[in-house]
Specification:
alpha+beta, elongated
Length: 372
């Protein structure tokens, strides 16, 4: 992606009705929104005000060939006309190019997020719940799927996995998605899974727990321990893993189940200690160190969700239109992916919020972020 091809990139996005472009094309409207989001602007009103300013409108015309800024109402109309599925497919193709040839060290994390502001909106119906898949090592959103309610997340994740290229990757998911069918879809796609069995699979959890809690058997497992201090809390995480799975009852129901493991997390704060255990199954034979590394990447999507809420105020977006809400969610995640990729490219530790502010204060920074 670069500034010369940004508007061309969105030309393949389809609309719900015929639109000839007039003064502003659909691709230009989407580009304006993406560029405003890169600057950290939270809503369409702010993006429109920013784009209309003399400095920015001149910049958009010079660098992106956008000569006309639609009014706020028309910008909303254009966003409403965008077919969400074609926008999603467009962004999926962009993200897929970042999957490396050797994917043995590539982790894909899956999780869902409800846009809270859509709760109770009569024009939207049920709250929007959106599943996202992320390339953890790069912070790039690989794919998205919208469901009517969180209770439909399991089949939605399964459908999303069928659309994705997971070959060679390790797919990690939370307890809700520890499902035999989900594991089978991942293996069929020539990928591997790492699933948290805590709570959602009680029999599986109990059997792994009994194995790990037995001193004799645990001594034969690979073990890795790491301690971190986060502000006023000390966190110690101990992982155990083994390829000894032949004894596991119902193993044949889980496609290519080759490894079980557990992670014990101990918290110490103000002299008080607590602990929790999580139990895992995987189709890939993982060392304890690898289990620690990959299991933690489940939180990569949570970090992206945090950015959506804290930096973009997504949970406070009051637009009462389902299509616009979905399209803005996709474009916010695309913008975060661009910012994350920029950080990787220049090996920067600068906070994303500061890069957004740089883009807002100095338009040339936007071009730097977009350059390949």
């Amino acid at each position: 992606m670069d500034r010369k091809t940004l508007t061309d990139f969105f030309e393949e996005v389809e609309t719900t009705e015929e639109y000839n472009g007039y003064f502003c094309s659909i691709a230009e409207a989407i580009s304006i929104v993406v560029l405003g989001i890169l600057c950290g602007l939270k809503n369409v009103s702010q993006i429109h005000q920013w784009a209309e300013s003399e400095r920015v409108s001149g910049f958009l015309k010079e660098k992106f060939g956008i000569s006309h800024i639609p009014c706020y109402y028309w910008l909303l109309v254009l966003l409403k006309m965008v077919k969400t599925d074609t926008l999603n497919q467009c962004l999926m193709r962009w993200a897929a190019q970042f999957l490396p040839e050797d994917r043995s060290q590539t982790t894909i994390s899956l999780d869902g997020k409800t846009i809270r502001s859509t709760t109770g909106m009569k024009h939207i119906g049920s709250p929007l719940h959106i599943i996202s898949a992320q390339i953890c090592e790069l912070g790039i959103t690989l794919a998205s799927e919208t469901v009517s309610t969180k209770s439909n997340e399991i089949p939605a994740v399964q459908e999303l996995l069928k659309k994705m290229d997971v070959e060679g990757c390790l797919v990690v998911a939370d307890v809700l998605n520890c499902q035999q069918k989900t594991a089978g879809i991942i293996v069929k796609g020539k990928g591997d899974y790492l699933l948290d069995a805590k709570g959602n699979q009680p029999n599986l959890e109990r059997e792994i727990s009994e194995y790990v809690q037995g001193d004799t058997l645990r001594k034969g497992m690979d073990c890795e321990r790491r301690t971190e201090k986060n502000r006023d809390r000390v966190e110690t995480r101990t992982a155990y893993s083994t390829g000894d799975t032949a004894w596991l009852y119902g193993k044949e129901k889980w496609e290519n189940l080759n490894c079980i493991g557990a992670i014990k997390t101990e918290f110490e704060k103000d002299g008080r200690k607590t602990e929790e255990w999580h139990y895992y199954i995987s189709s890939r034979k993982l060392s304890a160190a690898e289990l620690l590394q990959h299991a933690r990447m489940e939180w990569a999507v949570e970090t992206m969700h945090w950015l959506l809420d804290v930096h973009y105020g997504e949970d406070y977006c009051r637009i009462e239109n389902r299509t616009i809400q979905q399209n803005l969610n996709l474009l916010r995640k695309f913008s975060i992916s661009l910012l994350k990729q920029y950080k990787v490219r220049i090996s920067s530790k600068r906070a994303i919020s500061k890069i957004m502010l740089d883009c807002l204060l100095e338009s040339s920074k936007i071009c730097e972020v977009l350059e390949n």
